[in-house]
Write a structure and sequence with these properties.
Blueprint lengths: L1 E2 L6 E2 L4 E5 L2 E5 L1 H4 L3 E2 L29 E3 L3 H11 L4 H8 L3 H8 L7 H11 L4 E3 L7
Antiparallel strand pairs: 1-2, 3-4, 3-5, 6-7
Amino acid sequence: MSTCEICGTQILDHGENIYVEGNLIRVCKSCSKRGKPSKSQPEIQRKPAMRPKKTERLDRITFDDSSILVNNFFEVIRNSRMANGLSHEQLGLLIKERASLLRKIESGSLKPDEVLSKKLERFFRINLYTEVDSSDNE
Ligand SMILES: [Zn+2]
């Protein structure tokens, strides 16, 4: 004969095995309602599924997958800069970016991030992003 591990009364009948916070304990009938029946597995501590950071949604960025940088973004930027008679340094001053960065972008070795792209788009009134379209235009 055993006693209830919750209230301490003697368990006259079979008692109940329940899980309380993951521990299997033997309790009386009235206390058995407080826990989970032993038939069910104790809850396995489930770690939240690790998600790769890449798939994290960035809701505050308005660009989504349907907008991509045009292939010749560096030509567009370069042509716009030349048309305005600006050097890399001058343009850099105007849009508060480093000239070296602009050079890299115009050489195509670096893609402007969205902030810079937006800046350039506004500054030159150009479009650097294009909608991804399933229909072929060319
Ligand atoms: Zn009890």
